[in-house]
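Problem 12. The chain below contains 50 residues. Write out its predicted structure in token notation.
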Amino acid sequence: MMNKKSEFHFNKARRVTIEENKKFRQAIYEQFGIKFRERKRIKQDEDDQK
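Solution.
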């Protein structure tokens, strides 16, 4: 029977910084050769924000 209670403590969670994310991606690339594509936000015109 599986334990239905979550094992992850969400009240202690935090967001990962941009610098940490870059380090994680670099480590994955060095260890496994997996290259992630860059995900960039598309700039919106001021007219589109209305």
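Discussion. The helical segments are 18-32. Students who got a different answer should revisit the alignment rule from Section 12.3.
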